[in-house]
Each structure stands twice: as C-alpha cells, then as structure tokens.
Design goal:
alpha/beta; single chain; globular; Aldehyde Dehydrogenase, Chain A, domain 2; Aldehyde Dehydrogenase, Chain A, domain 1
Length: 475
C-alpha cells in the first residue's frame, strides 16, 4: 500500500489535519494514490525554529555520531529498497528495477558521507613569527534549506541531506510534491536511526511560496537546489540578495559525440538504453547526438533497432523497460518538440507521438536532419526524444557542442587517445564521459558549469558548500 504522507518537523510526523492537501497521481494509471499535506506558515516557522535550535548542539556533535547515523540509514535503505522502490514507481512512474536501483545506490551515498564526515580537516599554517600560531578551521555553515526534484526523488534528497548532516548542519528540505514517498521514507529512516529532533525537517507546499519564505528567513544560511535553470536563477538571485551561498545543480543539454573510430554498435546500443532511462527525464541524459558522417548510417540503424525493442508500460510490470512520463503536462511538451523539429526539416524515423493508452506515455522517438535552431537542439527535452545530426570536423563539433549556455554532462565515443584528450579538454561541461557512463558515483563530484549550476555534490568536494572557513591566529 502507498504510505501515509506527512510533514516531518522537530522529530514529529504531522498529518494533513486542518491543512491543504493535494492528490498524488500514479502516472501510469492516472489514479489518485495518496494525499499530501501542505505546510502552513506556522509549520514553516516551527521548522525554522527547530532547525535553529538543533544546530546549537548538532554543530558540536562528534563526527563518529554523525557517521553512525548515516551508516544506519544506509543499512535501512538496503533492507527497505524493494518497498521504497515500489512506492517510487507508483508516484513517479519509472520501472521498478530503476526505482530499487536508485535506493540501493543511495545507500552507497550515505556510506560515503559517513566516512568522509570523519575527514573534515583544517590545517596549520607555518607562521612568520615563531611565537604565532595560525590555524584554519572548517565549521558547519548553519541552517540549510534544500529543494529537490521529482525525477530522482530519493537520490536528489539523500545527497543534500547527507552532506548537510555530515557537515554538522541542520536542514529543512522541500521535496517533490508529485513524487513524495521517497522523501517520506528518508525521514522515517533518519528518525529510526536516532537523528536528534530538528536536525532534519521535511515540508511540502506550493514551491515558490515555500522557497521564498524559507530563503528570506534570517535563520537560513545556505540554499541548495536541483531543478530547472529558470527556477535556479530565481532562487540564486533571491539567495544572493541576502548574501547566502548556494549549490545549484541545474538543467543541461548533454552532447554526445561519436567518432568514426568508435565501436559504433556498442555505442549505439548503450546510448539507446541510456536515453530511455527514466523515460529520458534525467538531467544528464544524452540529448544532442553528433555522429560522424562515416558511421552515421550504421549508428542510426543500430540505435533505432535497439529502441524498437524497448518495452514501454507500467513500471510495476516486470517486462517494462521504460515507464510513463511523470506528469500529464510532459506529454504535450514532447509533441511540441517533435512538431517544431519537423517544421524545420527534421524527419521522424521512430515514434514521435503519445501512446494510445491510459497514462502519460510517449513513445521512444528518433528525429534526424534536425536544424541547429530547432527546440530539440536548443532546449532540454527532458523526455525520450533523440535528435541525430552529422559532423565531419572535430573542432567544429566541439564548437557546436559548446554553443549553448549549458554545461552539465557530455559523452564522447572514440578509440583514439589523442581525440579523447582533445575533446575532453575542449568541451565546456562539468562532466565528460568517454566510452561509458561514469558519473554520479558517491566518490565522484557531480555538477555543472555555465548555466548548469554552481558547486558540486559528491566526491571530496561534497561538504564544501556546507562549511565555512575560519582563520584563527594567536600568540
């Protein structure tokens, strides 16, 4: 059964009594499966006060205590992965195997943060005067607020929560109202793991109202957001007006460059399957395919043939490889991308339309001969649509790949070390994957440049946004 949804404030789960609620919809069936309570202004004030109060003690907590709690949550995540994954599939739509895999991989994230939080080091600076001591301390920044998206509801929330808690901060998180079950499960596990009241607080509501109120609060010292570029710019602007640092993991439009010396069959099969992961609703999904003209036809044939074999359906059906889009509004958005590409000379060689069935389904789609000015080549589709274009010159394709204001992820397929080095040096992206998909591991930094974001999550950089630097000198 789908879980009962609640707020989580100051160590207490709070139901929807006398609060506005919203329907939670299963995108595969369009059925209402739950009710989500929205936080009142009093609820937000209580969360702010609880986080502020808890910070006074949590900031001085032992890294061993933080690590123990994080490891316990990792253990619980693995034990409950099937149940949590089932509920993610119900409210978000992705295939069950992907949902369970998301939870299992996030258990690694809690383990990583448990270990790394024991290694938040300062340093001693050699003095010019032997009677002087110069020390650098890294201290938790304070109360943090975080806003996380619906496409990876468990993954995006746990990254921010673990980083804040591991650094000694407290956090108020507004998760995705469309797919809230994963965040509820996280709150329950931290509660059971013994996290002190007020260190983690979960609120729900109208996104712009919640973010505006929390970011403006003088209690809040740090803002973290994962989502679209336009919303990220608004939140960063608001945070900047109050001199609050931000971590922004925003959208991208990831270029793929397949050279003529690549293993074309392997690349085409890998990219086709990666493209339809979570129905293409992935910020690092490959979205602009530049294929060398010498291997273009072979790549296209294998790519299309692989997508033809993809089973689309309800994520709870074991044979399903691609589920529905998460929202009803995403279906006409996909149609708009395809129609615009066709109007500018593009050719639909596969799919191109919604599936004739209940639910928010859109067929895996391939469009060729796409104009550089088409929406598909300039705006992130965030869906199962792949535009393919030809290239001949390496410098030119790097220029085309860098032509947009985004810089999140990128993909290169070549068997030439010289080409791999040239392209990885030339691409303007926070992450470059060569001949495989290797991003988003706990031990590696995840983040973009240009309009795709500020800062990184994961890796040894994971706590940077949650710590301040204090210099102490004395004689």
């Amino acid at each position: 059964m789908y879980p009962t949804l609640a707020l989580y404030i100051d160590g207490e789960f709070i139901g929807g009594e006398n609060r506005k609620t919203q329907d939670i919809i299963n995108p595969a069936t369009q059925e209402v499966i739950g009710q989500l309570p929205h936080a009142t202004r009093d609820d937000l004030d209580r969360a702010l006060e609880a986080a502020s109060r808890a910070f006074q003690t949590w900031r001085n907590s032992s890294p061993m205590q933080r690590a123990e709690i994080l490891r316990k949550v990792g253990q619980l995540s693995r034990e409950r992965a099937q149940e949590i994954g089932h509920n993610i599939t119900l409210d978000q739509g992705k295939p069950l195997a992907e949902s369970v895999g998301e939870v299992m991989s996030c258990a690694d994230h809690t383990d990583w943060h448990a270990e790394e939080c024991r290694r938040i080091y300062g340093r001693v600076i050699p003095p010019r005067d032997p009677n002087v001591r110069q020390i650098v301390l890294r201290e938790p920044i304070g109360v943090c607020v975080a806003f996380t998206p619906w496409n990876f509801p468990y993954n995006q929330a746990i990254r921010k929560i673990c980083a804040a808690i591991g650094a000694g901060c407290t956090i108020i998180l507004k998760g995705p109202e469309d797919s809230p079950s994963a965040v509820m499960a996280i709150a329950q596990m931290f509660h059971e793991a013994g996290l002190p009241a007020g260190v983690l607080n979960i609120v729900w509501g109208v996104p712009h109202e919640i973010s505006d109120y929390l970011i403006r609060s003088p209690i809040v010292r740090k803002v973290s957001f994962t989502g679209s570029v336009p919303v990220g710019k608004q939140l960063a602007s608001l945070a900047g007006a109050h001199m609050k640092p931000v971590t922004m993991e925003l959208g991208g439009h990831s270029p793929v460059i397949v050279f003529d010396d690549a293993d074309v069959t392997r690349a085409a099969k890998m990219l086709a399957k990666f493209k339809i992961r979570n129905a293409g609703q992935v910020c690092v999904s490959p979205t602009r395919f530049y294929i060398h003209e010498k291997v273009y036809d072979d790549f296209l044939a294998t790519f299309v043939d692989t997508l033809k074999g993809i089973r689309v359906g309800d994520g709870l059906e074991p044979e399903t490889q691609m589920g529905p889009l998460a929202h009803e509004r995403r279906v006409p958005a996909m149609t708009r991308f395809v129609e615009d590409a066709v109007q500018l000379g593009g050719k639909v060689v596969l799919g191109g339309e919604p599936l004739d069935r209940k639910g928010f389904f859109f067929s895996p789609t391939v469009v060729t001969d796409v104009s550089e000015s088409a929406l598909l080549m300039t705006e992130e589709p965030f869906g199962p649509i792949a535009p393919l274009v030809r290239f001949t010159d390496t410098d030119d394709v790097i220029r085309r790949a860098n032509s947009l204001p985004y810089g999140l992820s990128s993909y290169v397929f070549t068997n030439s070390l010289q080409t791999a080095t040239q392209v990885s040096n030339g691409l303007e992206a926070g992450m470059v994957n060569i001949n495989h998909f290797g991003s988003a591991l706990p031990e590696t930094p995840f983040g973009g440049i240009k309009e795709s974001g500020i800062g990184s999550e994961g890796g040894s950089e994971t706590f940077d946004g949650y710590l301040v630097t204090k210099f102490v000198t004395h004689v």
